[in-house]
Design a protein that fits this description.
CATH topology of chain A: MetI-like fold
Radius of gyration of chain A: 20 Å
Shape of chain A: globular
Structural class of chain A: mainly alpha
Largest sheet of chain A: none
Order of helices and strands of chain A: HHHHHHHHHH
Number of strands of chain B: 20
Shape of chain B: elongated
CATH superfamily of the largest domain in chain B: P-loop containing nucleotide triphosphate hydrolases
Strand content of chain A: under 5%
Radius of gyration of chain B: 25 Å
CATH superfamily of chain A: MetI-like
Oligomer: heterodimer
Order of helices and strands of chain B: EEEHEEEHHHEHEHEEHHEEEEEEEEEE
Distance between the termini of chain A: 53 Å
Strand order of the largest sheet of chain B: 6-7-8-3-9-10
Number of strands of chain A: 0
Distance between the termini of chain B: 44 Å
CATH class of the largest domain in chain B: Alpha Beta
Structural class of chain B: alpha+beta
Helix content of chain A: over 70%
Number of domains of chain A: 1
Strand content of chain B: 25-35%
Chain lengths: ~210, ~375
């Protein structure tokens, strides 16, 4: 049961971190560089989930993803694991966006302008210039989002599909069932595993490769 | 000589809120020309480069590069399709890339040709042996040369330089001036070079483009701009810092009062006539005023002589900068070989051909 819950939580948290990273980077890029009319609205929307308590958000997701008219589109997500991923993405997006925006704001526009004048496409500029320049912020954002999603209890306890417990829900249930030893051991083990994943990934990402010419 | 226009700017304007960064600017740039764009900070120089590069959109007017319309209110050719490269004031080097990677960045060539091209540019810019260095491992001068090598790598027809020497020390700036100009002439690249240093602009340019508040003040050869500044403001920018603002033409022979009973003749060629009673601003350069400690028996023709009171003498290395006061309250500077005691009276002799006159239009 512990292994199942742990793997389920890792799957949800890593998917949320990855998708959140792509969305967060896009929002941060638009906020910093694009001449976009509704910048401030976008910024406000990206912060909404920080201002609303997790339980309220969870109930909101039930209302939103449990409507009959969504069924023909295959979007009746309540009771499916994908609703947990969507909730995790929504929960981590403000953190990811803030972390990446902070770093992007320190990158002079001229660094991207000069790449454009060298004839490089937008995708090329993002891959060759922007991503390497904010690599450490991206790693920090992804790992923070991963860690936060792994142990988020409020939304998980409301939205978890029947019989598919996530790690925080499983630990909470163990405490409720007065299985304190099991709950404490699961907490410790879960914490150690998550910390190890974070440390290993951040070490791997900090390795610098120097090419010789 | 039949020169080919490479950049055509027509009635170009760019506004930020209520402020005109560029205001109805029109001029042509010829192929292979080195243009220095001179003006004060905030005068619109960098905005002009951004407009030409396509990094900003004009609010009015047009830019044509090689006769092709690249910027107007309704047209905006992307920067990467203009055949223009730029060197920014901060060089915009990428901290994660080494020198080789910077220069090779925009090149779409097979490996062997790319290597050859990059190494030939590194040699041209005297950067051999530094290919594997990161920007943080380079000096200011080397960083500047990497930025120039990168800009030249894609063989642009036009290169825009935005105060590239502002971060270099004085000696290096002097050295780079002649090296850069010679290099660009050899390559035949058209250069627009922004600076607020008038000496640098004069030394490097084929033509000077002088702008103030986004407005064209003068465009001409350095010699012509220096010898006949188009306005009192340009005269001040090019060193004519001595000024009177309330002189009156005492006759129709270009003689102007600079005190109760003191006059100056200004014979510098003017595109306009000045008649008796016209209020004018007179401008002169400190280096064009000769200080005589005793009254001379005679002075050369077309020279004016005025008595002045020494207020201050400041040592500036090659000379002493002397602050003089003519009656009643005309303050001006002159350069002198030795120290002059404040409080003494001297004679200031000025060449009438080097005094500039600008009519003051009173409304």
């Amino acid at each position: 049961m512990f292994i199942d819950s742990l793997l389920r939580s890792i799957k949800i948290a890593s998917t949320a971190a990855l998708v959140g990273l792509i969305l967060g980077l896009t929002i941060a890029y638009v906020l910093a560089f694009a001449k976009f009319r509704f910048k401030h609205f976008l910024e406000a929307v990206s912060l909404v989930s920080l201002a609303v308590p997790g339980v309220v958000l969870g109930i909101g997701y039930i209302f939103m993803w449990n409507q009959k008219w969504l069924e023909p589109f295959g979007l009746l997500l309540y009771g499916k694991p994908s609703i947990l991923i969507i909730a995790a993405i929504a929960g981590t997006l403000p953190i990811i966006t803030r972390i990446i925006s902070g770093t992007i704001a320190t990158i002079p526009h001229t660094m991207l302008d000069v790449a454009q004048l060298q004839g490089v496409s937008l995708a090329g500029r993002i891959v060759s210039i922007l991503l390497p320049l904010c690599k450490s912020a991206l790693v920090t954002a992804a790992l923070s989002a991963f860690g936060a999603s792994m142990f988020d209890l409020a939304v998980n306890s409301i939205l978890y599909p029947p019989g598919q417990l996530t790690l925080p829900v499983m630990i909470n249930k163990a405490f409720e069932d007065l299985r304190f030893g099991y709950a404490a051991a699961a907490t410790m083990l879960g914490g150690i595993i998550v910390t190890t994943v974070i440390v290993v990934i951040s070490k791997l990402m900090s390795i610098k490769v120097r090419h010789e010419y | 000589m039949n020169r080919k226009v490479i950049i055509q700017i027509s009635h170009l304007s760019k506004q930020y809120d209520a402020h005109f960064a560029i205001n109805d600017l029109s001029f042509d740039v010829y192929e292979g020309e080195f243009i220095s764009i001179l003006g004060p900070s905030g005068g619109g120089k960098s905005t002009l480069l951004q407009l030409i590069a396509g990094l900003a959109k004009p609010d009015a007017g047009e830019i044509r590069i090689q006769e092709r319309l690249v910027s107007s209110l309704n047209t905006m050719l992307p920067p990467e399709q203009r055949g223009v490269s730029m060197v920014f004031q901060n060089y915009a080097l990428w901290p994660h890339m080494n020198v080789y990677e910077h220069v090779a960045f925009g090149l779409k060539l097979p490996r062997v040709q790319r290597d050859q091209h990059v190494h030939s540019l590194l040699e041209l810019l005297e950067l051999q042996g530094l290919a594997n260095r990161l920007p943080s491992e380079l000096s200011g001068g080397q960083q500047q040369r990497v930025a120039i090598a990168r800009a030249l790598a894609t063989a642009p027809r036009i290169i825009l330089l935005d105060e590239p020497m502002s971060n270099l020390d004085g000696y290096l700036r002097l050295q780079m001036r002649s090296q850069l100009k010679a290099m660009f002439k050899k390559l035949g690249t058209t250069v627009l070079y922004v600076t607020h240093d008038s000496e640098e602009a004069l030394a490097m340019a084929d033509r000077l483009l002088i702008i103030k508040d986004g407005h064209l003040e003068q465009i001409d050869t350095p010699l012509a701009c220096y010898a006949a500044p188009a306005s009192a403001w340009v005269a001040g920018l090019l060193g004519a810092i001595n000024r009177t603002t309330a002189s009156i033409a005492v006759n129709n022979s270009r003689e102007f009062n600079v005190g109760y009973d003191q006059t100056l003749r200004a014979l510098n060629p003017l595109p306009y006539s000045i008649s008796q009673g016209q209020r004018v601003e007179l401008r002169s350069r400190p280096e064009d005023i000769t200080i005589l400690e005793k009254e001379p028996a005679s002075i050369p023709p077309n020279y004016s002589l005025n008595r002045a009171f020494v207020l201050h003498s400041g040592f500036e290395g090659k000379y002493w900068r002397v602050t003089l006061l003519s009656e009643p309250e005309v303050l001006y500077y002159a350069l002198h070989d030795n120290y002059l005691e404040p409080g003494i009276y001297v004679w200031a002799m000025s060449d009438s051909n080097k005094i500039f006159v600008y009519p003051i239009n009173e409304k």
